[in-house]
């Protein structure tokens, strides 16, 4: 009828209508409960969608266009505030449903804890699943402020689910001493750097099902100030994108991007960066991976 | 399927799906071209929709609920940047279509200039149309910076369209000397106050078709800091709402709310106020007015 | 030794050292878990303490000085993130301890849910306890997003604890229809206004033990923009303070001030207002009330 | 030559070129040294000039226009940072020069301390000078943090210069107990209110030379959030303007407006309010008063 | 007379008075009409001038001082809001006048569209003019939202004016697929990088008249967050400055710097960077180039 | 008694109670008087302490933990506003006391001028003291706006105290021509770079007592936007930290970190960076240096 854009900004740029025809599916998981220092990750999925429209659908670096992809954006999950367990249950249920339907799941957090239920669902479908974490923080505490389910313990729980030997942690530059000790004994933990260790491990991961979780704070707060626990000394935006290009050939079966907190970034560049990283990851992995074969 | 709220925040609270069944229709008109001091009114419709969810659908003051109303929210018009005339043409076309379909039009600006094409469309359908303006500024210049179509000239143009004798201007507390001289000679212009003059004119307007345009800056910048040209000395939020209740019985045939600029209001209260004013105006007028009878 | 002010800003202005000698005791309860629209109330206690130093210890209106009072400030409770029940348990334990020690409890929230465990503790010590709520929102839902413990249900739970007939709700201007229906049937709910209904009920409350809970959003967002769910149309700062002076003679046995969210107020005036309201409430009630007699 | 506005925003709206022909002279005094809680008043003169262009030159309330006035704007004084005495000396020298040249001085602060050297200069020219202060704070301390020259002691110093019996303090709602005791013994101090006491004293001041100093924090922080020590409970913008209109007939010989701090007001409304108050004061007093006759 | 700095901040640091004696001339062109995502470039010229005073006049890297240069700053052009064509006409007229008078033109935008009329004027004076663009975006669309004159089409129009073979585009990392196809066929377009391609082309440009247009978003948003369409993955501030030093020997005949949007940068560093880049470009090119010879 | 964290955020992370047992001592020196462009450094010590809790006590890069160190945090000095000399006297007195007690002094500014009295105290205890300055600005003016004690003259004064030949200035990229001339003649001044010159001079400094002063603006404003005079073109956060690691073996006898201005950094990353740099400097130097031996 009229020339209106009722929904333009409410979907990720390039997303098409219709779940059934979609290969990849974006879901927002605005969990924002266990962050101690400051909250606001709940606003991330909407903000990232809105700022994705600053970008183009075309990636000159990849020479590909979101228009070549079949993907939809379902919006945000309804999560109960103050009830972490129930929130995790709903995220898991959703991830299971997507995987059962043969979709490539793309979750936008929310705090890092959202990765746990998705990994739980993914490892059931893809035994031997590898989890590749790009992050400033080890997130390997066993308990945090008396709680076992927290943004600060999430990778410990993930390691328990998929086996520490299947967890690769890159860019890590903050954690308690005990976390690094645990990491050295159980996971593959790499300090500070992202690109160099990836070059080493890329071959090892070849052919195995990989789930990628990107905590935006792996990037230096100069590039991504809008995050819950900014940790100076991270990589640049370009290095993060190079890391994705480097892993182009991997059998990635899903990914999430977490810990954007738009409240603390007036410029919006954290959300734009998140959107660009999601666009590049979609273009690199969402078409290529063929989970059903 | 999944419990998702993909579109929750992208519609005004309580808006239903479906144009055909709707009695009132919300359209965003993010025109944002002629403001000199600062731009940003383009963000208003989306911000107002999003912040409408801070409110409830129920108005305790009116004892009514948006759920009792049939109204939809079409989203924002696509306006060409830098081409004011074409933008105005599209707004007019949309207003004409809504009126032709028997709808009650609700436009969310955008700058004040958006009122002009809506009034042009409305006066064709409702001869003898009265325009009731709540505003801090007279907007009665003939030209502004050499342009005849501007936020500073809009009510002069409106007066030319409907006849100055059908224009009622309330709360006006800023303008050039020539504007007040023009106002005194041609329109009904009331300085500073809103409620008292309304009490006087309410009876005069009884039974006549009335279009209401609310420039949010009629309210003091303490209550509505997010606006393009804040003018100290305005009324309170409550007074603006009392004005609406006072005019409950009028035959209002449509309204707009303009000049919210969310960029300059960190708290979001300007957008919440705009949403609340829209909710109350919808509850008071959108059901009662029966343009077709 | 050296002239240092290590702790100046970390205590409420005028607070003395030493729990034992104190008559009134300030505790921060940074619960910030169930707010849906935006989080940040966790930062309130610290911000309010810091901004209390903008004020003087002396109240010219009351002619009294905080120096005449014996009160201390214990700092903030350690609350587990993401575990609402455990958080409520700790607040209750603290309130019980304070009351057992004959103290006058002053809690700084955090979200409104913190009032519940304090009231639970207070009603055990003061049977027949009246709860006086100054708030924009009724908070009378039975469940909110599937949860029974939420900022939106807190007064329903409070009414269940002390009996609805002992709950007085003032300034209420937002809620679902069902909340007002519940309120009319069970509590004393007064729409919009604060001062006039207080004048009516002041005598009724005379001599009875009263707990006061102030949600800062009872004040209009013009005066208190830093809050989680700003609702236009509230009273002014002065009216809130007049309400306190009006209730000077009551037997108040404790109070809280909740829902300040400093993240959304660049000017800091919400925190200063909260500090001033706390100062006046301390001066009016914390000395006079003698719970042990 | 070219159509450029090189200097438009760098002068107060309506200011003409040329010192010699001017009756009133605006000078910025960006002193910003003794504020403890937060600095930024140095930015006020420029910000107020820039935001004065949001206004019109015409005041509909007064029916007068800045174009009818002869006044110029000299820009800001160069003040040495960290040397309060030298800064005060320069302000005094400037004020003396303006008064010697028969000008009507208008100073834009800076912190409140700037009033002292202007009053020192004015009382020499106008023996029996009355100082009328609109302010939230008494500023009557004898020393503040060991210093005698401070924003917190300025009115004590002023009282010493002109005699406490010639000092009228209105709107005062904050101060130490000793300040109010001093005020009651030495100056005319009026708590909280502005308009009512003015009505009382207006006649007393009739015919006497009056210097007016407006601390923007006399207005509630809802209306003027951009200030150094926001104190809740002040008057509204309208009340401040009514106070000026009320004093229309006085023999005012100069005025200042101080303590705007634009850093803490994203909306700019504090600066617009300051500009509007200056415009009205110029229109009311700068033409009418004829000190030389 | 008095020690005042009325105009200090209203001119670019080091600018001298007097058009006639000036070799280089700064003009602000606050065009801000066609940006879709967010407006605010209109504030850039003033903000950049003001923040230029954070810098010194001396460049330690170049060993030169603005004091050695003869240049003036005329302030901002008066542009009609909402009438792009007329705005472009005025900019062109100004550029023609400057070039006719033998000046070295320096324009501060405003949006990128301002480059077009300057290039139109420059190519008439300097046939064979090369346009060197440092930018994140190709800006090569033929139409954008139905308009041919837009920030998104500006380089397409420029290419039509000077011939695509005379357009060099560096740092480009965003655009639609069709833009890159057009670029590859018509202009010299270089992806992502700035320094390396410049080294290649510097010799080619030797001796030819070159106009340089710097879109501040060529730099990563970490360094320049205050811009209309932030695109992650850009170069650093230092790289941009190195690019300028690299091109030291070129026959540059004028330059512009566009797309700073101060509204989204609380720190002001985008404006300081812009001012520094302008200072270095002035020192490198404005003296050396001798257009009349 | 109760589980409270009254003082958690008011001390630097890991700081222990008790001055006597402490080896290193943190003192805040919120001097904020001579900055011309913008004030706010007074807020830095508190902000840095608060944001230090975003970090961990453990440094994975160094493999050390603040728990291994004995250090306390005394809070902030009380400085008189507007009296620079008295402020400097108090800082000096404090530094003398710390050194007399055999402590390793750690000062958090405040503006850069705070370094002068500390150096004065330190050179008395450590004859031949070397001062190592990491900074964007030379700070070598003899007078600034007529004052000899200013943030812009501090290193000139320091050079006079310890001898220019003992002053090493790194990362310098801004200053008047005369400053660089003075620097070349008197101090060791290195342009732009930090790491490379450090490698050269590290050996020269071996065994000599060194005082380190870090002006946060040595880092690019992308990484540290919250500072008084942002100067584009600085090093990255990582490079600053590498500089510290490089100087691990030096006999550092104290350090300060100055010029953080939190008012202009919404994200808080400048304060986190400052806290991290302080943590690393504490871990590297505060244990190893043994001034008494």
Description:
6 copies of one chain form a homohexamer. Chain A is α/β, with parallel strands linked by helices and 293 residues long. In chain A, the strands form 2 sheets. Chain A has an 8-stranded parallel β-sheet with strand order 4-1-5-10-9-6-7-8, sandwiched between helices. Chain A has a single domain, classed as Ureohydrolase domain (Arginase, Chain A, 3-Layer(aba) Sandwich), CATH 3.40.800.10. Chain A is globular. Chain A contains 8 helices and 10 strands. The longest helix of chain A is centred in the C-terminal third of the chain and has 18 residues, at 269-286. In chain A, strand 7, helix 5 and strand 8 (188-191) form a beta-alpha-beta unit. In chain A, helix 2 runs parallel beside helix 3 and helix 3 (115-125) packs parallel to helix 4. Chains in contact: A-B, A-C, A-E, A-F, B-C, B-D, B-E, C-D, C-F, D-E, D-F, E-F. Chains A and E meet through helix 7 and helix 8 of A and loops of E.
List keywords for this structure.
10 strands; two-stranded antiparallel ribbon; alpha/beta; homohexamer; disordered C terminus; 293 residues
What's this entry about, in short?
The structure is a homohexamer of 293-residue chains. Helices cover 32% and strands 18% of the residues of chain A. Chain A has 293 residues and is of the alpha/beta class.
The greatest interface between two protein chains, and residues involved on each side, is:
A-B, 24 and 24 residues
The CATH architecture classification of chain A is 3-Layer(aba) Sandwich
Low-confidence stretches of chain A: 289-293
- Strands in their spatial order, largest beta sheet of chain A: 4-1-5-10-9-6-7-8
Let me know the largest β-sheet of chain A.
Answer: 8 strands, parallel
Overall mean pLDDT score of chain A? 93
Percent of residues in β-strands of chain A: 15-25%
Span from first to last CA of chain A? Answer: 42 Å
Radius of gyration of chain A: 17 Å
CATH topology of chain A: Arginase, Chain A
Structural class of chain A: alpha/beta
Please give the CATH class of chain A.
Answer: Alpha Beta
The number of helices of chain A is 8
Categorize the overall geometry of chain A: globular
Could you tell me the number of beta strands of chain A?
10
**Multimeric organization:** homohexamer
Q: What is the CATH homologous superfamily assignment of chain A?
A: Ureohydrolase domain
């Amino acid at each position: 009828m009229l020339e209106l854009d009722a929904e333009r900004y409410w979907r990720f740029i390039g997303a098409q209508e219709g779940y059934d025809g979609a290969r990849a599916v974006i879901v927002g998981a605005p969990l924002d409960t266990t962050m101690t220092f400051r909250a606001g990750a709940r606003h991330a999925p909407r903000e990232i969608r809105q700022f994705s429209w600053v970008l183009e659908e075309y990636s000159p670096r990849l020479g590909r266009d979101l228009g070549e992809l079949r993907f939809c954006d379902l919006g945000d999950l309804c999560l109960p505030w103050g009830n972490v367990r129930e929130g995790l249950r709903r995220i898991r249920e959703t991830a299971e449903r997507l995987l059962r339907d043969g979709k490539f799941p793309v979750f936008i957090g929310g705090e890092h804890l959202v990765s746990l239920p998705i990994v739980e669902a993914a490892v059931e479908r893809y035994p031997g699943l590898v989890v590749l974490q790009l992050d400033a923080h080890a997130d390997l505490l066993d308990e945090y402020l008396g709680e076992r389910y927290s943004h600060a313990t999430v990778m410990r729980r993930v390691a328990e689910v998929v086996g520490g030997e299947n967890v690769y942690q890159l860019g890590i530059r903050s954690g308690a001493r005990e976390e690094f000790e645990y990491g050295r004994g159980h996971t593959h933990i790499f300090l500070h750097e992202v690109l160099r260790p990836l070059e080493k491990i890329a071959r090892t991961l070849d052919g195995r099902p990989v789930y990628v979780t990107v905590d935006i704070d792996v990037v230096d707060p100069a590039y991504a100030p809008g995050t819950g626990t900014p940790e100076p000394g991270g990589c640049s935006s370009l290095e993060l994108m190079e890391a994705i290009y480097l892993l182009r050939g991997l059998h990635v079966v899903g990914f999430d991007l977490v810990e954007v907190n738009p409240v603390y970034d007036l410029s919006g560049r954290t959300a734009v960066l998140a959107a660009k990283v999601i666009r590049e990851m979609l273009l690199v992995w969402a078409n290529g991976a063929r989970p059903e074969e």
